[in-house]
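Hi L.,

As promised, Transcriptional regulator:
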Amino acid sequence: MLRAIREHEPESIRAAANLVERDFKDVHRNLTELETLNVIKFEQSGRSKRPIVRFDAIDAEITLDSGDTDVAAA
């Protein structure tokens, strides 16, 4: 979804949902979460909020090992 928004620059959340062929409510929820994480920002455009990806690339590190050897692997 981030790549699609970055490449196609949809004018609204609804346009972004149509672009990725997903339900509006799900896309709205996801974009709101990404805004909280500062990954996207919204630009007000009349009554619509235009999603804008803030970065060209995102590097993420996810540690799955807590270092606790007493915990069984999932």
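The beta strands are 40-45, 48-53.

Thanks again for sending the construct details.

K.
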